């Protein structure tokens, strides 16, 4: 009796492949079903210093938060929702483990206070964005920018923020924290910066490199301890003009 080994092997391998395909399909279906039934047991928030974890979670848009299907939670949508918080400048979300979603935020921190002509104070961040009122108990020592919050003046406010950032970058926190206020002088076309500690007025021109002007100030403060109660004009290229003019009250 003849026996065809080739046909037998072919049937064996065909059966094996079919079995493997069935197993793979079953695993895929099981994985989808398993993933579908995974629920959110925890939402972690990183980077919140002045904001509360609860308010960030409330902005996620995940109804009832815990118990929602992890598969149904869109990370992109969560990021878009949290980014709508007025004090959030950057947000990133990701799945962490089998039952958790992690959210990392970067807060908008008050960098200065704007005192408009109307008199009510408002915080602004380091980008010049005006922030809604909120009590920041830990932030009290920030400079005041005098001026208007009208559309025509927002650019000038941002120029003031830029000047403050240059002072912070060149001189560091110690000198920056001594700044009581900064105001644009239209007659002199310069920024008038008031240093509380020394009772000094600084005249800073936006038309010259601000860092160079601040470096001249740093040299003066390091070498001369008798410049308190003075006005220091840093706008000149090759000199510094010191006078007895005082801050107008």
Structural account:
The chain has 249 residues and is α/β, with parallel strands linked by helices. It has 6 helices and 11 strands. The longest helix has 32 residues, at 5-36. The protein is elongated and about 100 Å long. The mean pLDDT is 80.
Q: How many individual β-strands?
A: 11
What is the subunit organization of this protein? single chain
Q: For the CA atoms, what is the radius of gyration?
A: 31 Å
Mean pLDDT score: 80
Strand content: 15-25%
Helix content: 25-40%
Runs with pLDDT <50, length 5+? none
Largest sheet: 8 strands, mixed
Shape, per Cα inertia axes: elongated
Give the N-terminus to C-terminus distance in angstroms. Answer: 119 Å
Q: DSSP helix count?
A: 6
Order of helices and strands: HEHHEEEEEHHEEEHEE
Identify the notable features of this structure and list them briefly:
alpha/beta; about 250 residues; elongated; 3-stranded mixed beta sheet; about 35% helix
List the SSEs and their pairings:
Elements: H1 5-36, E1 42-46, H2 53-58, H3 75-82, E2 88-96, E3 100-107, E4 112-115, E5 122-124, E6 144-146, H4 151-171, H5 173-176, E7 179-185, E8 190-195, E9 200-204, H6 210-223, E10 231-233, E11 241-243
